[in-house]
Fold:
Amino acid sequence: AEALPAVLDAALAAWQATSRGSEAAPAGTSAGRLATLRRRYHDLGASNPFAAEEYAEVRQRLETLDAQRVDLEAAIRSTRELMGQLSNLISTQFRATFAALEGAFGRRFQQLFDGGEAQLSLTDPEDLSRTGVEITARPPGKKRQPLAMLSGGERALTAVALLMAMLEVRPVPFCVLDEVDAALDEANIGRFSAALRTLAERIQFIVITHNRGTIEAADALYGVTVDDDAVSRVISLRLGELDEASLALAAPRG
Structure:
């Protein structure tokens, strides 16, 4: 490639030597065409002897990237299809679970309030990823109101009804309740304890309470006392065993 300019120069010099008296070669002559080719060659700039090898490398790289692009596009389509399937599955399961929860909530509310009705509703049923849940309730003898408009005891009992409904729909191995009965009166405590006993057939409850009615519904009691030397001591008592022992002591002796 580097010898081509020298060949062109030599050819042009030889022609000029045989064409004395002519200062410029006409464009249509061989010398003119040769000069034109020479200028066009110089306009191309320096040649790259490794161009073919570099082209092969770049082409191979392009083919590799193109194959990767095809794989990525296929993965994107597959992921989008999976996302659509999961979205439909989540929507179906959410609506089914919400319907079951709403039914259980209504039953638990009536059980704890000895009547009335309660309802769960979605704030945005068309967009389940952003929707909220509103609770409305109508205690016996009152009109339907949002949860925030109920009294403290009614709100507490409504929240307990919702919790019990959740446990009914999706049971768990055990549940810890921390003084959820603090705002309940004696009548509500009785219904709360009865509802707790029905759920206790499938779920173990750990209840922190100071209410005597709730304590009487328990199977076992655990308490902490402080001795005279200011050392805490844990005491436990199983009410079933206590009842049997009490009956044995109270039974007449032959």
